[in-house]
Design goal:
The protein is an alpha/beta fold. The protein contains 15 helices and 12 strands.
Length: 357
Protein backbone atom coordinates (compact mmCIF):
# COMPACT_ATOMS: atom_id res chain seq x y z
CA UNK A 1 0.00 0.00 0.00
CA UNK A 2 1.43 3.35 -1.06
CA UNK A 3 2.35 5.85 1.63
CA UNK A 4 0.42 9.09 1.90
CA UNK A 5 1.63 12.52 2.91
CA UNK A 6 -0.14 12.19 6.24
CA UNK A 7 1.86 9.05 7.05
CA UNK A 8 5.03 11.15 7.28
CA UNK A 9 3.58 14.14 9.07
CA UNK A 10 2.19 12.61 12.23
CA UNK A 11 4.66 13.31 15.04
CA UNK A 12 5.47 16.92 15.71
CA UNK A 13 8.81 18.23 16.88
CA UNK A 14 8.36 19.69 20.36
CA UNK A 15 10.77 22.58 21.03
CA UNK A 16 12.87 21.99 24.12
CA UNK A 17 11.78 24.15 27.01
CA UNK A 18 13.99 25.04 29.94
CA UNK A 19 12.96 23.82 33.38
CA UNK A 20 15.16 24.96 36.25
CA UNK A 21 16.61 22.01 38.15
CA UNK A 22 15.12 19.38 35.85
CA UNK A 23 16.58 15.90 36.52
CA UNK A 24 18.56 14.13 33.80
CA UNK A 25 15.73 11.65 33.25
CA UNK A 26 13.30 14.46 32.46
CA UNK A 27 15.82 16.19 30.16
CA UNK A 28 16.22 13.03 28.08
CA UNK A 29 12.47 12.45 28.00
CA UNK A 30 12.02 15.90 26.44
CA UNK A 31 14.89 15.23 24.04
CA UNK A 32 12.90 12.35 22.54
CA UNK A 33 10.88 14.99 20.66
CA UNK A 34 13.79 17.02 19.27
CA UNK A 35 16.14 16.01 16.43
CA UNK A 36 19.63 14.87 15.52
CA UNK A 37 21.96 13.45 18.18
CA UNK A 38 19.81 14.78 21.01
CA UNK A 39 16.99 12.46 19.96
CA UNK A 40 19.42 9.59 19.41
CA UNK A 41 20.75 9.97 22.95
CA UNK A 42 17.20 9.88 24.27
CA UNK A 43 16.57 6.71 22.24
CA UNK A 44 19.76 5.17 23.69
CA UNK A 45 18.27 5.78 27.14
CA UNK A 46 15.20 3.74 26.18
CA UNK A 47 17.18 0.95 24.47
CA UNK A 48 19.44 0.50 27.52
CA UNK A 49 16.34 0.16 29.72
CA UNK A 50 15.01 -2.51 27.35
CA UNK A 51 18.28 -4.44 27.76
CA UNK A 52 17.87 -4.40 31.53
CA UNK A 53 14.20 -5.35 31.40
CA UNK A 54 14.87 -8.24 28.99
CA UNK A 55 17.58 -9.74 31.25
CA UNK A 56 20.02 -10.19 28.38
CA UNK A 57 23.80 -10.55 28.71
CA UNK A 58 25.16 -7.01 28.22
CA UNK A 59 28.65 -6.34 26.87
CA UNK A 60 30.21 -2.90 27.34
CA UNK A 61 33.10 -1.80 25.12
CA UNK A 62 35.29 1.14 26.13
CA UNK A 63 37.83 2.80 23.85
CA UNK A 64 39.47 6.21 23.79
CA UNK A 65 40.92 8.00 26.80
CA UNK A 66 37.85 7.63 29.01
CA UNK A 67 39.71 6.89 32.25
CA UNK A 68 42.22 9.68 31.70
CA UNK A 69 39.30 11.94 30.81
CA UNK A 70 37.53 11.44 34.13
CA UNK A 71 34.97 8.68 33.46
CA UNK A 72 36.59 5.76 35.28
CA UNK A 73 34.33 5.87 38.34
CA UNK A 74 31.26 6.19 36.11
CA UNK A 75 32.29 2.94 34.38
CA UNK A 76 32.97 1.39 37.80
CA UNK A 77 29.41 2.37 38.76
CA UNK A 78 28.03 0.55 35.71
CA UNK A 79 29.96 -2.55 36.77
CA UNK A 80 29.13 -2.46 40.46
CA UNK A 81 25.39 -2.00 39.99
CA UNK A 82 25.24 -4.38 37.00
CA UNK A 83 24.04 -2.06 34.29
CA UNK A 84 26.41 -4.27 32.26
CA UNK A 85 27.73 -7.85 32.60
CA UNK A 86 31.05 -8.02 30.71
CA UNK A 87 33.57 -5.31 29.95
CA UNK A 88 35.77 -5.27 26.85
CA UNK A 89 38.32 -2.47 27.06
CA UNK A 90 41.43 -1.06 25.55
CA UNK A 91 44.50 -1.53 27.72
CA UNK A 92 44.91 2.24 28.05
CA UNK A 93 41.58 2.68 29.84
CA UNK A 94 42.51 -0.04 32.32
CA UNK A 95 46.03 1.31 32.77
CA UNK A 96 44.85 4.86 33.49
CA UNK A 97 42.33 3.38 35.91
CA UNK A 98 45.15 1.48 37.66
CA UNK A 99 47.14 4.73 37.76
CA UNK A 100 44.49 6.50 39.85
CA UNK A 101 43.60 3.44 41.92
CA UNK A 102 47.23 3.37 43.02
CA UNK A 103 46.86 6.93 44.32
CA UNK A 104 48.13 8.93 41.35
CA UNK A 105 46.18 11.55 39.42
CA UNK A 106 45.46 13.11 36.05
CA UNK A 107 45.52 16.90 35.84
CA UNK A 108 43.62 19.58 33.94
CA UNK A 109 45.84 20.78 31.11
CA UNK A 110 45.67 22.45 27.73
CA UNK A 111 46.31 21.42 24.10
CA UNK A 112 47.97 24.80 23.58
CA UNK A 113 50.95 24.07 25.84
CA UNK A 114 54.53 23.74 24.55
CA UNK A 115 54.98 19.95 24.35
CA UNK A 116 58.73 20.35 24.30
CA UNK A 117 58.49 21.92 27.74
CA UNK A 118 56.28 19.05 28.91
CA UNK A 119 58.83 16.53 27.69
CA UNK A 120 61.58 18.31 29.61
CA UNK A 121 59.49 18.12 32.78
CA UNK A 122 58.55 14.43 32.20
CA UNK A 123 54.88 15.24 31.73
CA UNK A 124 52.71 13.35 29.24
CA UNK A 125 49.70 14.95 27.55
CA UNK A 126 46.40 13.36 26.50
CA UNK A 127 44.88 16.28 24.58
CA UNK A 128 43.93 18.59 27.48
CA UNK A 129 44.95 16.24 30.31
CA UNK A 130 48.40 16.03 31.94
CA UNK A 131 49.98 13.08 33.75
CA UNK A 132 53.32 12.53 35.49
CA UNK A 133 55.52 10.31 33.30
CA UNK A 134 57.65 9.23 36.26
CA UNK A 135 54.56 7.77 37.90
CA UNK A 136 53.86 5.84 34.71
CA UNK A 137 57.32 4.30 34.90
CA UNK A 138 56.58 3.28 38.48
CA UNK A 139 53.27 1.72 37.37
CA UNK A 140 54.98 -0.31 34.65
CA UNK A 141 57.48 -1.66 37.14
CA UNK A 142 54.67 -2.49 39.58
CA UNK A 143 52.80 -4.44 36.88
CA UNK A 144 55.97 -6.27 35.92
CA UNK A 145 56.67 -7.22 39.54
CA UNK A 146 53.08 -8.38 40.02
CA UNK A 147 53.18 -10.54 36.89
CA UNK A 148 56.24 -12.32 38.25
CA UNK A 149 54.22 -13.48 41.27
CA UNK A 150 51.75 -15.42 39.08
CA UNK A 151 52.02 -19.03 37.98
CA UNK A 152 54.55 -19.37 35.13
CA UNK A 153 52.01 -20.08 32.41
CA UNK A 154 49.89 -18.17 29.92
CA UNK A 155 46.79 -16.46 31.31
CA UNK A 156 43.90 -15.16 29.29
CA UNK A 157 43.60 -11.39 29.52
CA UNK A 158 40.34 -12.00 31.39
CA UNK A 159 42.03 -14.15 34.06
CA UNK A 160 45.02 -11.81 34.36
CA UNK A 161 42.86 -8.71 34.78
CA UNK A 162 40.76 -10.41 37.46
CA UNK A 163 43.95 -11.21 39.38
CA UNK A 164 45.23 -7.67 38.80
CA UNK A 165 41.98 -6.24 40.19
CA UNK A 166 42.32 -8.45 43.25
CA UNK A 167 45.88 -7.26 43.86
CA UNK A 168 44.86 -3.62 43.47
CA UNK A 169 41.95 -4.04 45.87
CA UNK A 170 44.08 -5.83 48.46
CA UNK A 171 46.74 -3.12 48.29
CA UNK A 172 44.60 0.01 48.04
CA UNK A 173 40.98 -0.72 48.98
CA UNK A 174 40.04 1.94 46.40
CA UNK A 175 37.16 1.89 43.96
CA UNK A 176 37.88 1.76 40.23
CA UNK A 177 37.19 -0.21 37.09
CA UNK A 178 39.53 -3.11 37.84
CA UNK A 179 38.69 -3.30 41.54
CA UNK A 180 34.93 -3.02 40.97
CA UNK A 181 35.08 -5.78 38.37
CA UNK A 182 37.04 -7.98 40.79
CA UNK A 183 34.63 -7.38 43.67
CA UNK A 184 31.54 -7.81 41.46
CA UNK A 185 32.89 -10.88 39.62
CA UNK A 186 32.45 -9.16 36.26
CA UNK A 187 34.85 -10.38 33.55
CA UNK A 188 37.07 -7.92 31.70
CA UNK A 189 38.54 -8.80 28.31
CA UNK A 190 41.35 -6.77 26.75
CA UNK A 191 41.99 -8.12 23.24
CA UNK A 192 44.69 -5.53 22.42
CA UNK A 193 46.41 -5.57 25.78
CA UNK A 194 49.87 -5.46 24.15
CA UNK A 195 48.96 -2.03 22.80
CA UNK A 196 49.16 -0.42 26.23
CA UNK A 197 51.39 0.19 29.21
CA UNK A 198 49.95 -2.95 30.79
CA UNK A 199 51.54 -4.85 27.93
CA UNK A 200 54.78 -2.96 28.50
CA UNK A 201 54.72 -3.96 32.17
CA UNK A 202 54.16 -7.59 31.20
CA UNK A 203 57.12 -7.39 28.83
CA UNK A 204 59.26 -6.23 31.76
CA UNK A 205 58.18 -9.31 33.71
CA UNK A 206 59.41 -11.48 30.83
CA UNK A 207 62.65 -9.49 30.69
CA UNK A 208 63.33 -10.40 34.33
CA UNK A 209 61.99 -13.95 34.15
CA UNK A 210 61.47 -15.56 30.77
CA UNK A 211 58.66 -17.89 31.89
CA UNK A 212 56.39 -15.02 33.04
CA UNK A 213 54.47 -12.28 31.26
CA UNK A 214 52.61 -14.51 28.78
CA UNK A 215 48.97 -13.90 27.85
CA UNK A 216 46.61 -16.08 25.82
CA UNK A 217 44.46 -13.60 23.92
CA UNK A 218 43.18 -16.36 21.62
CA UNK A 219 41.70 -18.01 24.69
CA UNK A 220 39.71 -14.79 25.19
CA UNK A 221 37.97 -15.45 21.86
CA UNK A 222 36.78 -18.87 22.97
CA UNK A 223 35.64 -17.61 26.38
CA UNK A 224 33.71 -14.63 24.99
CA UNK A 225 31.99 -16.77 22.34
CA UNK A 226 31.06 -19.37 24.94
CA UNK A 227 29.44 -16.65 27.04
CA UNK A 228 27.23 -15.79 24.06
CA UNK A 229 26.38 -19.44 23.39
CA UNK A 230 25.52 -20.10 27.02
CA UNK A 231 23.59 -16.88 27.73
CA UNK A 232 21.75 -15.80 24.57
CA UNK A 233 20.26 -13.31 23.82
CA UNK A 234 22.90 -10.60 24.18
CA UNK A 235 23.33 -6.85 23.91
CA UNK A 236 26.18 -4.49 23.05
CA UNK A 237 26.99 -1.01 24.33
CA UNK A 238 30.05 0.53 22.67
CA UNK A 239 31.76 3.71 23.78
CA UNK A 240 34.21 5.06 21.24
CA UNK A 241 34.54 2.13 18.82
CA UNK A 242 38.06 0.73 18.62
CA UNK A 243 39.11 -2.88 19.10
CA UNK A 244 36.50 -3.54 21.84
CA UNK A 245 33.66 -2.88 19.38
CA UNK A 246 34.75 -5.56 16.93
CA UNK A 247 35.71 -8.01 19.69
CA UNK A 248 32.19 -7.84 21.13
CA UNK A 249 30.64 -8.28 17.70
CA UNK A 250 32.89 -11.15 16.66
CA UNK A 251 31.96 -13.06 19.81
CA UNK A 252 28.47 -13.42 18.40
CA UNK A 253 29.74 -14.38 14.95
CA UNK A 254 32.05 -17.05 16.38
CA UNK A 255 29.27 -18.35 18.62
CA UNK A 256 27.00 -18.73 15.60
CA UNK A 257 29.67 -20.74 13.74
CA UNK A 258 29.88 -23.38 16.47
CA UNK A 259 26.32 -23.15 17.78
CA UNK A 260 23.91 -22.03 15.05
CA UNK A 261 20.61 -20.47 15.98
CA UNK A 262 21.68 -17.16 17.44
CA UNK A 263 20.31 -13.85 16.22
CA UNK A 264 23.23 -11.50 16.77
CA UNK A 265 23.04 -8.93 19.55
CA UNK A 266 19.37 -8.18 20.15
CA UNK A 267 20.10 -4.68 21.42
CA UNK A 268 22.92 -2.30 20.53
CA UNK A 269 23.91 1.23 21.51
CA UNK A 270 27.05 2.90 20.22
CA UNK A 271 28.33 6.35 21.10
CA UNK A 272 31.02 7.24 18.57
CA UNK A 273 32.56 10.20 16.80
CA UNK A 274 33.83 8.15 13.85
CA UNK A 275 31.82 7.94 10.63
CA UNK A 276 31.40 4.99 8.23
CA UNK A 277 32.51 6.66 5.00
CA UNK A 278 36.19 5.81 5.49
CA UNK A 279 35.72 2.08 6.04
CA UNK A 280 37.00 1.76 9.60
CA UNK A 281 35.36 -0.56 12.12
CA UNK A 282 35.05 2.22 14.71
CA UNK A 283 32.73 4.22 12.49
CA UNK A 284 30.87 1.34 10.90
CA UNK A 285 27.11 1.60 11.07
CA UNK A 286 24.90 -0.76 13.03
CA UNK A 287 22.99 -1.56 9.84
CA UNK A 288 26.26 -2.77 8.30
CA UNK A 289 26.80 -5.00 11.35
CA UNK A 290 23.52 -6.76 10.53
CA UNK A 291 25.02 -7.93 7.21
CA UNK A 292 27.69 -9.83 9.16
CA UNK A 293 25.18 -11.37 11.55
CA UNK A 294 26.63 -9.33 14.42
CA UNK A 295 23.29 -7.72 15.23
CA UNK A 296 19.78 -9.10 14.97
CA UNK A 297 17.81 -7.92 11.97
CA UNK A 298 14.81 -6.71 13.96
CA UNK A 299 16.34 -5.67 17.31
CA UNK A 300 16.54 -2.24 18.90
CA UNK A 301 19.69 -0.42 17.82
CA UNK A 302 20.82 3.22 17.92
CA UNK A 303 23.98 5.17 17.14
CA UNK A 304 24.77 8.42 18.92
CA UNK A 305 27.40 10.41 17.05
CA UNK A 306 28.81 12.33 20.00
CA UNK A 307 31.78 12.65 22.34
CA UNK A 308 31.38 10.06 25.10
CA UNK A 309 32.39 12.60 27.76
CA UNK A 310 29.36 14.67 26.75
CA UNK A 311 26.79 11.91 26.28
CA UNK A 312 27.58 9.28 28.91
CA UNK A 313 27.33 11.38 32.12
CA UNK A 314 23.86 12.58 31.09
CA UNK A 315 22.77 9.12 29.97
CA UNK A 316 23.90 7.28 33.10
CA UNK A 317 22.62 10.01 35.41
CA UNK A 318 19.20 9.54 33.83
CA UNK A 319 19.43 5.75 34.10
CA UNK A 320 20.35 5.95 37.79
CA UNK A 321 16.78 7.13 38.37
CA UNK A 322 14.75 5.65 35.52
CA UNK A 323 16.36 2.19 35.60
CA UNK A 324 16.42 1.75 39.38
CA UNK A 325 13.36 -0.57 39.44
CA UNK A 326 14.76 -2.57 36.51
CA UNK A 327 18.12 -3.01 38.22
CA UNK A 328 16.42 -4.14 41.41
CA UNK A 329 14.32 -6.74 39.57
CA UNK A 330 17.09 -7.85 37.21
CA UNK A 331 18.74 -11.25 37.60
CA UNK A 332 22.11 -10.73 35.91
CA UNK A 333 24.42 -13.58 34.91
CA UNK A 334 26.36 -14.91 37.88
CA UNK A 335 30.07 -15.41 37.28
CA UNK A 336 32.71 -17.20 39.31
CA UNK A 337 36.13 -16.04 38.13
CA UNK A 338 38.29 -17.57 40.85
CA UNK A 339 39.67 -20.39 38.68
CA UNK A 340 41.38 -20.49 35.30
CA UNK A 341 38.05 -20.90 33.51
CA UNK A 342 34.81 -18.94 33.84
CA UNK A 343 31.87 -20.41 35.70
CA UNK A 344 28.60 -18.93 34.43
CA UNK A 345 25.41 -19.53 36.40
CA UNK A 346 27.04 -22.57 38.01
CA UNK A 347 28.28 -24.08 34.74
CA UNK A 348 32.04 -24.25 34.13
CA UNK A 349 32.75 -23.12 30.58
CA UNK A 350 35.49 -24.78 28.51
CA UNK A 351 38.70 -22.81 28.52
CA UNK A 352 39.85 -23.53 24.98
CA UNK A 353 36.95 -25.26 23.19
CA UNK A 354 33.59 -24.04 21.99
CA UNK A 355 30.31 -25.22 23.46
CA UNK A 356 28.16 -27.04 20.95
CA UNK A 357 24.40 -26.70 21.28
Amino acid sequence: MASKKSDFLRNKIEPFTVEAGAPAEEILRKMERISFQGRNLAIAHQVWKKMLADNVLIFLGTAGALSAGGLRLLIAHLIEFRYIDCLVSTGANLYHDLHETRGHHHFLGSPEIDDGLLQTEHIDRVYDTFVDEDEFIENDEWIGAFAQTLDPRAHTSREFLHLLGRQLWNETGRNGILTSAYRSNVPIFCPAIADSSIGMGLSQARQHNDDHGYLDVIGDIAESANLVIERRPTASIVLGGGTPKNFINQAGVQAEFYSPGGEGHRYAVQIVTDVPQFGGASGSSLSEAKSWGKLSVDGDHVTVNADVTLALPLLVSALSASAAPLLKARRPPKFDLAGRAISLDGRLLPLDRYISR
